[in-house]
Amino acid sequence: MIVLLTGYFSYKESNQIEENKGRLALELAKSISFMPSVIEAFDSDDPAKMIQPLAEKIRKSTGAEFIVVGNRQGIRYSHPVPSEIGKKMRGGDNNRALKGKYYVSKAKGSLGPSLRGKAPIYNKQGEIIGLVSVGFLLEDINEQITNNLQKGLVVSFLALIVSIIGSYVLSRDIRKDTMGLEPYEIAALYKEKNAVYHSVKEGILAIKKDGRITNMNQPAKRLLNIEGSVRNMKVDGLFPSEYLYEVMKRGNPEPDKEMYWKGQTVIVNCTPLRNRSGEITGVVASFRDKTEIEQMLNTLSEVKQYSDDLRSQTHEYTNKLYVLYGLLQLGEYEEAIDMIKNETQLLQLQHSVVFRQIQDTKVQAILLGKLGKASEKKIQFEIATDSTLEVLPQHIKLSKLIIILGNIIDNAFDAVSGLESPSVKLFVTDIGSDIIFEVEDNGTGIKEKDIPQLFNRGYTSKTGSNPRGFGLANADKAVKELNGIIEVHSQPESGTIFTVYLPKNNQGS
């Protein structure tokens, strides 16, 4: 840029110097042509005697190379070289002046190529009686241009050196800030960052120190129910801003903060942003809906419970095998045979329903686990002999069944725990457009006023050091996600019946 600008301004200045010299020559020629003493000298016998001293005086005071005054025939009355007076003017550029024109021209005269200003001389009658030619040698003009260009080039060279040094320092500082990365590497990182930024499930929000948003990814917008661009908008009203300002004020990260915002509970992790000098410039927060985390934990809990049920079943059968082994060791063959018969009859009855009438393997696995758990707890868990169930539709997943059946059956087990003859019955059918699971217990029942609160999260009738209150709430949520319903019928001291209706077509019933 410096080289281009230097060339441009040098060209403009060269033209300007030449134009100024031409204008000066023309103005001098005009001034001399209007001088009365010059006009009167033309009427004298020797015009050169009067004009030559005057022209030389003006030439020396103005710095012109020559001032030539001549008549209409081009005979000189003045010239810097006295021997040239009386001779004809050279250059061949006098015609327009003799026709009354004022102009600037270039021509080669007795002193060499020059830039000339031409002006006609009029007498009192308005007739052209001669002309004035004031000139500057082109060699002198070019020398002045060269001198000016040299000065400009020196300044430009110094500016170029300074700019190169400044560019080097600036680029080094920029590379330090960009950790030595090239522009294409920065662009690639930016694209990768954006892809990661919008693909994570957590909402991410970044704000400046004044509370204006610099970044917000799509999951954050979905969680906060925001549409469109929010860049440079104030965070107030879109997110709990007091918490963000507090983190900026303290300057310390704040992990796993639970907050309630617009009807939902979110878990927030917040970290302040700092510049190279350590000053806090903003804050970035990542957050997630607590219900998603709870759902994941509940699913893991239910799977673990399912595993525990199977372990209980294994433990129960192991105990029975040890008893049978002991009877055989003692020679009590009759008792061993009776025990085998009783267990066989019970298993045949249970398995005939589980394996013959219930065709879905997911439900079979859950019921086998619950049978083992009931046996371990000394609870009579009976599956109705008229139960029938084909393979469940694809939209009813194992995780949902574990949450629904597992919680309702376990709730029934808890209800009869401690009774003399605890009993829980299960009836299953898929006749019609719905799949129906009915769980009945002979517990103490539920008070009528408590039934509406059964499926509220956190509500529990259990006492102790660690009451939960999430099982039935999770079951109710899973049923609603499958477009089903749960009904509860109960009276104090007469047991409780939970009935679950799940539509087969997943479109509601």
TrEMBL record:
All copies of domain Histidine kinase, residue ranges: 400-506
Keywords recorded for this protein, A-Z: ATP-binding, Cell membrane, Kinase, Membrane, Nucleotide-binding, Phosphoprotein, Transferase, Transmembrane, Transmembrane helix, Two-component regulatory system
Enzyme Commission designation: 2.7.13.3
Subcellular localization(s) per the UniProt record: Cell membrane
SUPFAM superfamilies: ATPase domain of HSP90 chaperone/DNA topoisomerase II/histidine kinase (SSF55874), PYP-like sensor domain (PAS domain) (SSF55785), Sensory domain-like (SSF103190), Sporulation response regulatory protein Spo0B (SSF55890)
Gene Ontology MF terms in the entry: ATP binding; phosphorelay sensor kinase activity
Chain ranges of the PAC domain: 241-302
InterPro entries: HATPase_C_sf, HATPase_dom, His_kinase_dom, PAS, PAS-assoc_C, PAS-like_dom_sf, sCache_3, Sensor-like_sf
Catalytic reaction(s) noted: ATP + protein L-histidine = ADP + protein N-phospho-L-histidine
Organism domain of life: Bacteria
Gene3D superfamilies per record: 1.10.287.130, Histidine kinase-like ATPase, C-terminal domain, PAS domain
GO cellular component: plasma membrane
Protein's membrane topology: Multi-pass membrane protein
Protein name: histidine kinase
